[in-house]
Amino acid sequence: MPTNGLKIGLALGSGGAKGLSHIGILKVLEENEIIPDLITGASMGAIIGAGYSLGMPIKEIEEKACEFFTLDSIFSPTNFHYFHESLIRIEDIRKVFYEFVGDSTFADCKIPFMALGLDLEEGEEVRMTEGRLLEAVEAASAIPGIFPPVFVDERYMVDGGLLNPTPVDYLRESKMDIVIGVHTENLTARQYISAMVWDKFYKKPDKLKKQTKRGMLEQAKLNMTLMINILMRTIEVARKLNEKIAFLTGHPDIIIEPYTMDIGMLQFERIEEAIKYGEEAAKKQIPKLKKIIRDKKKDLKK
Fold first, then answer.
1. Which of 19, 25, 51, 159 is the most buried (most CB within 10 A)?
2. pTM here?
3. Which is nearest to 16 in space by CA: 267, 276, 281, 273?
4. Which of these, 112, 143, 146, lies nearest to 129 by C-alpha position?
5. pLDDT tens track of the chain, all 302 residues?
6. 183 SS3 class
């Protein structure tokens, strides 16, 4: 559906592996000839958004994501480094980001793009629109504790989705006629925490403390999983509150919400499900989006 001069902004939110649903959403928008004029992204939204903004075909983005966002390439035990700023060093993840943006800069984007980071020293969001895309994407997707902070332009940055999970406010400030926000939600970390609380504090804790059958390696794996889920749940709680604030500020015309609640933030192996959820969610919103486009066109003619 040609937009006839209407400026459309698309905000691709954070959510780790859930954000792979952005691929399905972009696929459906493209099929309906709805191409954004400005894209913003936080976390996974920054990675997918950067590749798409550079003009990478959505099919190629999907192929690269299926190849490089895997447990073997990112979350292999050999990549864990316990005496660094995070579980995974930047050297172990940079090759994945490079596949999407290479040596490109923001100036190379065919669609204007903004990646959102969080300055840890100042405690404020950083809207990155200039310089190397690789550094910006690394910073915008640096989940604290999992991936290391990135030093860019004298700022020590992590995932901007902590403050602004779906940066629709930037699109509204940029005078977009139609603003689309993509929101994902996480329940898997909550469920894991609930199960842990039950086992540890309600289900005969004294007996559990005396268990000795589990090997040290298995116990270490359980502790590591618990640590990651505690971190993910903390981030999710912060995201949820901040997203409400962002939506109130930017009040998107359309909110696309893929059903990704059963996908954990680090379950990248479920990429095909995430993409499918994205497609289904986008298709549900296409009739409403087309109506908004028609109405906006009428307003322009007045």
1. 19
2. 0.82
3. 267
4. 112
5. 556 678 999 999 988 888 999 999 999 999 999 999 999 999 999 999 999 999 999 999 999 998 877 655 555 555 555 556 666 777 778 888 999 999 999 999 999 999 999 999 998 999 999 999 999 999 999 888 778 889 998 999 999 888 888 999 999 999 999 999 998 865 555 555 565 665 655 555 554 454 555 556 665 556 666 666 666 666 666 666 666 666 666 789 999 999 887 787 777 888 899 999 999 999 999 999 999 999 888 777 66
6. coil
